[in-house]
Amino acid sequence: MLKISQVFGPTVQGEGSAAGRHCLFVRTFGCNLECAWCDTAYTWAVTEAKAARTHSGRLYDRDDPAYGMKPMEPDEVLAQLRELWDVERRPTVVVVSGGEPMMQQRDLVPLLDRLHGWGNEVHVETAGTIAPVDAFDAVVTQYNVSPKLANSGNRPTKRYRPEALAALRDTGKAWFKFVVTADLETDLAEVDCIVADVAIPSRRVMVMPEGSDARTNTATARRMVDTALARGYGLSLRTHVLLWGDDPDR
Fold this sequence. Notes:
The protein is α/β, with parallel strands linked by helices. It has a single domain (2-179), classed as TIM Barrel (Alpha-Beta Barrel), CATH 3.20.20. The protein contains nine helices and nine strands. It has a nine-stranded mixed beta sheet. Helix 8 (214-231) links the parallel strand 8 and strand 9. The radius of gyration is 17 Å and the shape is globular. The mean pLDDT is 95.
């Protein structure tokens, strides 16, 4: 039984190396981190203590019918996806996000195996704190790995697991995306340390400005793009934010 928050689409992938591509989303419920600026805190901030870790302090309802936790069998998720798009006959990209989907990687295998078998690309979004198991890795096309920096508010031993990042790197399927705030120098210095420590090829690294509105997103991007390019890093905007603001269904 899977813990699911949302199944939605078609939309465009908003972030990372696949930005702009046609896709569907399966958003899992639950996370092992508590990022202060998280834009999907409804998947985990369901206690007073967890809500207090976010900038907004908002407490979400675990049983909310729209964004709360829904126990679902893989076939139920497939049925919802097929209502949105003919994933069996018109393969596309299916993004499995969260929360942290790799907390459920063994339970996700039957779902991803079907999607993969139909020719869909399966992209998994993860914070990179959990290494993939073989059965899961076999049905994943791409990992979009977003290691969390100090700006996330998580303690270092919780958010930074170099052995898990190395395991994802070694699959040959991982792209690494770092959220950078207005404190550019501090954040980019930390990115540099992680990239060097884990031996991540710079061509596989993208930096992305934090911000849930278009103005903040683009302003930070303009400030950091030249510095990122000088390091060999790519730049990711948040396409969905530029198009639809902070609409959780897009």
